[in-house]
Predict the structure.
Amino acid sequence: MSQATKTAGLLLFPGLTQLDLTGPYEVLANLPGWKVEIVAKQAGPVRTAKGMVIHADQGFATAPQYDLFAIPGGPGTDDALTDAETVDFVRRQCEGAENVFGICTGSLLIGATGLLRGRRAGSHWAARHLLARFGAEVRDERMTKDGKFYTAGGVTSGIDMALRVVADIAGEDAAQQIQLQIEYDPEPPFRSGTPFTAPPHILARARAAGEARRPIREAAVEAAAARLASGTPG
């Protein structure tokens, strides 16, 4: 890495899952020689899905081209998918960035740009199948890398993938030091963190809890896929 400051941008939009953003932010903000910014349509406060308000440093119009661009997810992804200005900004940033990092359903936003066509990609377990509508090869792994595109599973996996990204761009020693500094050594009390390990009745309850969101997300993905097929992804 050169002595010049590198820049990382993390996308912020209404209805975002805050840990999708703040988990990777904590990792990346500890990376020496990097400036990390949060970017939204306009600079200023944005309310996340659970009510936390996060301040955007930059608006789309003033944001530089980032060396690393990260796209979190959450319920608000559905509105972002059908917002031409947001999709176009994501596309331009992803095209120009050295590395791109999708967290949770943020991978769907990358997919809506057309840049995951033919690439391996993952997302939150309840939404990853929808990546196929954008021509991606859907993967079940917690972390997936294809070229410069890193895609993580749901929410907490963004921390894991952020450490992987740091290891690739700054070396494993840097990533391990950050992991130690944030004392990231998870020991979950239950083996229910994926649909492959959760008890069947827990999986059924989780699916039922997301049932109201499912048709909304599917409709947003269909609209975004149709726009992409028409040749106007933004």
User: Anything to note?
Assistant: The chain is about 35% helix and 20% strand. Residues 213-229 form the longest helix (17 residues).
